[in-house]
């Protein structure tokens, strides 16, 4: 708890610094921007920072996870609560300038910045409350929280929610696109565990969204919700735990020179030994070690953070990358030819490439038609990622992985994962949303008929 309080103080200080800077910018008059917009945004309580090439602060506040793509917003609005979000949406509509929500800034294509220049970015970093209700076993989580902090706070109350592992990913964008990790086979996706949401819509009103109120939106937001329908400020999640049942989770990583499998077993040591016996006998490992850990210790270990501080207060690791995702469905598997194509690519690619296999099944594959995450028949999800060191290699490495993607998709199911968003994906509408796409378009028309909330791969109005 002490750590959290210290963090609050740091955030408050940052906010004061940002506010001061805003005033300086206005006074220096360096920035050209629509006058009615700055007047309107001056009513926002949180910091509002305008684009200014001479201001290093503005640039430093842009979350730069993937430096392959870069966009410059007109203004960064750091909302502190629902009211700020409502005001910002109204200002955007009034000034006819696009507004884009950003939570953790980890979109592979920088869609948290809109995927284009000169938009209003509504950053939710300070909408970061977490209220845990131990009786109902639910947690109300502000969209601006990063996964590391969510895990830490829930852990202190003996709970967790299943989601991805990278501590700096934002719960906001992550859960709206699905959100899977080591705990999903047992407990489902992050979006499966959302029971209600508050969303600021296109008119700046707050909508309560759950399985009864605005069910159509509840369906759309849980899987296709990132950036298309409105700004989700808080979500209430079903928590799981504190006693963990059995359940295996695996991730396999493969590159030119190595193959590694990282596993996790949710349950007591003796059950883990029994469950893993067949697997260990078949793979004949050089060494085997079973390390009993609490849930939070496993997050620290698997996310490869050197200590707990960096889980709670994660750093971004900017790099140049491009990724593609594929699903292999139950009963299908990869053919020998597909494996050869993949291995040849990993061996011969000129840029550094890595294939990760995330095991699906279990609770992830349970589908009750209440979410827009359709990839429920998958045996595993494959992510192929290319990384490089300098801007000069952008085109070469992007083209290389795009070419491979076109070939490899012939060997896998037709689907791709919307949280691993890919601007160059063909027929992304069907690959991300399958047969429900038209339904999502109809819901979009109802809630955002003028397409205020948009980015290059958002749900369109028609
Ligand atoms: C290093 C890294 C590790 C990852 N690990 C995993 C993993 O283990 N499992 C997994 O499933 N995915 C993983 N991802 C993918 C990740 O889930 C997506 O990139 C996700 O969209 C990031 O959410 P964000 O809030 O951080 O990003 P942002 O860039 O802020 O947002 C992503 C999209 O959602 C929209 N959005 C953001 N917040 C809101 C909101 N509050 N309301 C409405 N729309 C919103 C944005 O406009 C944007 O279109 C990883 C990504 C990275 C970069």
Automatic annotation (TrEMBL):
Chain coiled-coil ranges: none
Tree of life domain: Eukaryota
Cofactor(s) essential for the protein: FAD
Extent of the signal sequence: 1-19
Boundaries of every FAD-binding PCMH-type domain copy: 69-242
Keyword Iron-sulfur applies: no
Protein name: FAD-binding domain-containing protein
């Amino acid at each position: 708890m002490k750590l959290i309080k210290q963090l609050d103080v740091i955030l408050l200080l940052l906010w004061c610094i940002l506010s001061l800077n805003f005033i300086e910018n206005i006074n220096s008059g360096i920035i050209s921007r629509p006058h009615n917009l700055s007047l309107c945004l001056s009513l926002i309580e949180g910091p509002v920072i305008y684009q200014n090439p001479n201001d290093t602060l503005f640039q430093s506040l842009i979350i730069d996870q993937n430096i392959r793509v870069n966009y410059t917003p007109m203004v960064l609005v750091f909302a502190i609560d629902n009211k700020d979000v409502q005001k910002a949406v109204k200002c955007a509509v009034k000034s006819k300038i696009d507004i884009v929500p950003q939570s953790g800034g980890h979109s592979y294509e920088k869609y948290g910045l809109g995927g284009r220049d000169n938009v209003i970015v509504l950053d939710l970093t300070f909408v970061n409350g977490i209220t845990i209700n131990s009786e109902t076993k639910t947690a109300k989580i502000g969209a601006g929280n990063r996964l590391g902090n969510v895990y830490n706070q829930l852990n202190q109350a003996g709970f967790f929610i299943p989601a991805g592992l990278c501590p700096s990913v934002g719960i906001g964008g992550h859960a709206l696109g699905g959100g899977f990790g080591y705990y999903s086979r047992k407990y489902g996706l992050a979006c499966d565990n959302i029971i209600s949401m508050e969303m600021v819509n296109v008119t700046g009103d707050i909508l309560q969204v759950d399985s009864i109120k605005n069910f159509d939106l509840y369906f759309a937001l849980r899987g296709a919700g990132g950036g298309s329908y409105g700004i989700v400020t808080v979500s209430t999640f079903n928590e799981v735990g504190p006693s963990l049942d059995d359940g295996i989770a695996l991730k396999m990583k493969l590159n030119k020179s190595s193959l590694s499998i990282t596993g996790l077993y949710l349950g007591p040591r003796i059950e883990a030994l029994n469950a893993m016996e067949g697997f260990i006998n078949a793979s004949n490992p050089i060494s085997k070690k079973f390390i009993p850990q609490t849930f939070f210790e496993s997050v620290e270990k698997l996310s490869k953070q050197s200590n707990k501080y960096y889980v709670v207060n994660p750093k971004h690791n900017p790099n140049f990358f491009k990724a593609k995702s594929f699903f292999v469905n139950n009963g299908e598997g990869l053919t020998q030819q597909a494996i050869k194509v993949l291995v040849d690519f990993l061996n011969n690619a000129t840029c550094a490439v890595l294939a990760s296999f995330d095991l699906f099944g279990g609770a992830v594959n349970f589908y009750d038609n209440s979410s827009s995450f359709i990839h429920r028949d998958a045996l595993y999800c494959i992510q192929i990622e290319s990384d490089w060191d300098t801007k000069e290699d952008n085109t070469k490495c992007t083209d290389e992985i795009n070419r491979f993607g076109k070939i490899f998709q012939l060997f896998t199911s037709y689907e791709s994962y919307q949280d691993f968003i890919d601007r160059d994906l063909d027929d992304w509408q069907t690959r991300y949303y399958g047969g429900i796409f038209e339904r999502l378009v109809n819901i979009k028309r109802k809630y955002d008929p003028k397409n205020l909330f948009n980015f290059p791969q958002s749900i369109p109005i028609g």
